[in-house]
Amino acid sequence: MTGKSTQVHIHEKLIEKAKEKLSGSLLTVNEIAYELGFERPESFSRLFKDKTNISPLEFRKSFK
């Protein structure tokens, strides 16, 4: 219906959840990655940067 693949929808939801956690919690990026189901934090950071054009840390710093 949307023209997007299932994987794209999953990634969008993961990024949405990650943004919530990065802006509203004191969890580390690694802890957030593990909570979201990533086995390797590097994979999470790469996906986040691919989808938002900034790293998770850069995103978090924008809220300080």
Automatic annotation (TrEMBL):
PROSITE patterns from the UniProt entry: HTH_ARAC_FAMILY_2
Keyword Chloroplast assigned: no
KW Acetylation (keyword) present: no
Source organism, top-level taxon: Bacteria
Domain HTH araC/xylS-type positions: 1-62
Name of one Pfam family that matches: HTH_18
The entry's keywords: DNA-binding, Transcription, Transcription regulation
PANTHER family tied to this protein: ARAC-FAMILY TRANSCRIPTIONAL REGULATOR, TRANSCRIPTIONAL REGULATORY PROTEIN
Name of this protein: AraC family transcriptional regulator
Organism: Autumnicola musiva
